[in-house]
Amino acid sequence: MEFQHPHPVQIIRNTSRFWLLLLLPVLRGFLFSGGNLYVWMKGAWMDLLVLVAIVLFGYLSWYFNTFYVGKDGVYIHKGIFLIQQYVIPYEMISSITVENPFYLSPIRGSYVKLDTDAGNVRQADLSFVMKRKDVERLVKYAQEKLVGDAKNMGRIYSPRLWYIAILSLISSNSLTGVLFASTLISQSGNLLGKEFEDMLVTNLTKIAELLAFGIPPAAAILAYLLLGGWGLAFLLNIIRNKDFSVNRRNQSMTIRAGILIPRYYCFNIGRINLVEIRQTLFTKVLGYYSVYINCAGYGKLKNGTSVLIPAAERREAMRNLNLLFPEIQFVKRDIKPKPVDFRRFIFIPTIIIVVFAVIIAGSYLFFPGFRGLILFVGIMIEIIPVLYLIVRMISYSHTGIGYSQGMLTASYTKRLLFCRVSMPREKVSKIVYRQNLLQKSTGCCDVVIYTYSEGTKRHIIRNLNQTEVQELLKHSI
């Protein structure tokens, strides 16, 4: 049994969070020294010693962390002072994630993450930069255990680009884009100088002011900042999910996606805990469904999602879901909210709308010099609770629970999302119903379903009839 070291790039990865903090001061000191090596060494010797210590630590972490890809599992030997040795059988692996960034292609390296149900919620059981040949052997042996017949081509699903765009549209976050853009601007300042960074920010501000169209300049800058951030996040999501495809072969499922950083996922079908259909208010109006799965490791990467079907119309989504994952079926609702409980769905968003309206009106009266800005920002703020009110009104006809032949389906809303989750009864760790004092008057309660994977996931279905819930629990336990 010959153990292998990770790819040498792992040394850089082990120390990347530290050496950038020191590299910039060291380089800045060299520039201010006028190129005089002696003067530079005299002023930066402490930084250089710390930098050498960090690199040495990265090398030792790489040298003492080894692995062996066998036919039965992955054997791991890690630790410098506290040595750990363990094996992960392929049958216990929930998912394998492989990233192939373009900058690792010339040196034949790949980021690999391996997860099991017993792993940490935030970290993978195994996370290395491996040589491509080791990655190929790992994936081959893992799939042989799950596929069996190598000639089985399986069932393949590849969505249209329009569906990828819809997924990117609903999953893009303005904050993500703003943070990315701000990091890009600040790094440009570090690389090209503070003057360039100031010039870039000044010009962007002038453009926003020119395009204000009667809106107060501060409000225009805020609006364009959020819009630009969302547009950038949308573009990044398109790049991240381009060429999405799924292949199901016996008990193995593989997903490929991405162009600049191609990603490859391999799942054990038996380790998938649930299937979830999600809709936003926008996609619900258009009749599109997005399907996600819950499996340890999938979606754990930064900005990652656990999507199975990016978007599709209802009939197409259910047809492809039955093609890829017929083990989990969706059950019709047996329990629905009663008409008397409709007010409970709209009470909180209505209160929020009224409170915000009072605050905005008061600010408009007491700060006359900022009325234009207050009016614009107030309208923008009120949009969110109004949308929440619409979602909660629709939620009344969406919420419910169904159970049949060992399959449990829960329909509920989470913030501005419509969720419909189906899971085998054995994947449910606990079902709890709770009732506050206000709910007792109409005999309704909230149901909380706990499912397990890495950590615990909660599904809260609100305002269902207590008697019907208790009867359902008797049959589902």
Global Rg: 27 Å
**How many beta strands in the DSSP annotation?**
19
The SS-based structural class is alpha+beta
Strand order of the largest sheet: 6-5-4-10-9-8-7
Alpha-carbon distance between the termini?
Answer: 47 Å
State the helicity in percent bands: 40-55%
- Average pLDDT: 82
Strand content: 25-35%
Shape: globular
As residue ranges, the low-confidence spans are 174-197, 207-213
List the SSEs and their pairings:
Elements: H1 9-32, H2 37-63, E1 66-69, E2 73-78, E3 84-89, E4 93-99, E5 109-116, E6 126-131, H3 132-147, E7 155-157, H4 161-171, H5 174-192, H6 194-210, H7 217-241, E8 245-249, E9 252-257, E10 263-268, E11 274-279, H8 281-286, E12 288-294, E13 307-313, H9 314-324, H10 342-366, H11 371-398, E14 400-404, E15 407-414, E16 417-424, E17 428-434, H12 437-440, E18 444-453, E19 455-465, H13 466-476
Antiparallel strand pairs: 1-2, 2-3, 4-5, 4-10, 5-6, 7-8, 8-9, 9-10, 11-12, 11-16, 12-13, 14-15, 15-16, 17-18, 18-19
